[in-house]
Amino acid sequence: MKHPLHLGLACTLGAGLLWGMVFIAPVLLPGYSPLYLSASRYLAFGLVTLLLAGFDWRQLRALDRSDWWAALELSLIGNLLYYAFLASAIQVAGAPLPTMIIGALPVVISICANLHQASLPWRRLLLPLGLIALGIAAVHRDEWQHLQASLQLASTAEAGRAAGRFLWGGLLALGAVACWTWYPIRNSRWLQRRPHIQSTTWANAQGLATLPLALLAIAALLMTQFGGAPLRWITPSWRPFGADLADEGILTLLLGPQPLLFLALMLALGLGASWLGTLLWNRASQLLPASLTGQLIVFETLSAMGYAFIQRGQWPGGLTALGMGLLVAGVVMGVRAFRLEPQMHAA
Predict the structure, then answer these.
(1) Which class for 61: exposed (0-12), middle (13-18), buried (19 or more C-beta within 10 A)?
(2) DSSP state of 236
(3) Which of 111, 114, 126, 135 has the greatest number of beta carbons closer than 10 A?
């Protein structure tokens, strides 16, 4: 049987690789509002779960009312709101800046989790968290220099607009950080108090809880696009599609200006990033303390950075590469610190 630390590490790595994909979808689908992308991703998550729930029906029926309320709460904040903030930030400011702000999650979550329930002495957390913080700072510096170079080539008006977009995108990314600082700590506490709940069952419960929320969100957003004069005060960025699609076919009316790409990406995110990623993260949350899983969210950051640079067709700059190395070093140090704790052998 694998050591719980090793299995938890593998689960967080898998979840991080899957979750990194969500940073690319808003860039590939610029004609879709962030709220619509969020609702559609989690509609796909709910529908995938609905198909899979039949294999887990007995365990799902054993969940009590408090479990379902917790699943609904986690789905609303950790799924819909988080991705709406993140997708908005990416569409406003591009992928690298929000990715870097989200990159602060390993430090923020680890500190908040250890403040709530100390699972490791602070002196043991200081070095790995310091390395992760330095890595984030190094990447931020490189991206900031890239932004400054772009602004110098632009006109004064264009530079002002670009700076405004980066500021607004940064604020939206902070909203995503707040949502996902709360989510893993709350999720981990709930699962560790209920060790009888299997990770698959809890992933299915969150998917089923997400489904009605996503349906309501999509219905409301479609009303803003096609609801006529009473809703024209809604700004275009809050409508599903910025363009007027009234004369298009039914697929375009429901799936937007890039229906096939949109449908393929939402199904991929619903099954991979949402269902399988949630399952892997739930398993890790049962095996590891929240202050360690908080550090391991860095796998999502590293994956998202890699995908973003592939999409841009660029190699990371020197400081970015250094920062990524420091992030990896911080994770290694964090895992070593927890491996030395006796409690991990009894997890």
Answers:
(1) exposed
(2) G
(3) 135
Per the listing, tokens 């170079």 go with 149
Closest CA to 15 of 294, 339, 337, 341: 294
- Average pLDDT (146-159) is 61
214 pLDDT exceeds 60?
A: yes
Tell me the pTM: 0.76
CA separation, residue 139 to residues 74, 145, 274 (Å):
30, 10, 27
Question: Token pair for residue 189?
Answer: 């506490």
Q: Work out the percent of the chain whose per-residue pLDDT is above 90.
A: 19
The one-letter code for the residue type at 25 is A
Name the token pair of 35. Answer: 């709220």
Q: How far apart are the first and last CA of the chain?
A: 13
- Number of neighbouring beta carbons within 10 Å of residue 174: 16
Residue 201 to residues 38, 79, 195, 233: CA-CA distances in angstroms? 23, 17, 12, 42
Q: What's the pLDDT tens digit per position in 47-64?
A: 999 988 888 899 999 999
Alpha helices in the chain (DSSP H): 4-19, 25-28, 34-52, 57-61, 65-74, 82-93, 96-102, 105-116, 122-153, 156-193, 199-226, 250-255, 259-268, 277-287, 290-296, 298-312, 318-339, 342-345
- Could you report the per-residue pLDDT of 248-272, keeping only the tens digit for each? 556 666 787 888 899 999 999 989 9
Residues whose CB is less than 8 angstroms from the CB of residue 108 and which lie 6 or more positions away in sequence, other chains included? 177, 181, 294
| pLDDT above 90 for 192 | no
